[in-house]
Amino acid sequence: MSIITDIRTAFSRDNSLHKLLLLNVLVFVFLVLAKAIMSLSGVGAYFLNVARQFQLPSDLPSLLRHPWTLLTYAFSHLEFWHILFNLLNLYYFGALVREYLGDRRLVSLYVLGALAGAVLFLLSFNLLPTLQPMVGLPLLGASASVTAIIMAAATLLPDYTFMLFLLGPVRIKYIAAVVILLSVLAINQGNPGGGIAHIGGALIGFLFVKQLQAGRDLGRPVQAVGDFFVRLVTGRPNLRVTHRSAAATAAAPAASKAKASATSLPGEDEINLILDKISHSGYESLSKEEKQKLFRASQK
Question: What are the TM regions of this chain, as residue ranges (predicted)?
Answer without folding.
Answer: 21-48, 68-94, 106-128, 134-157, 164-187, 193-209
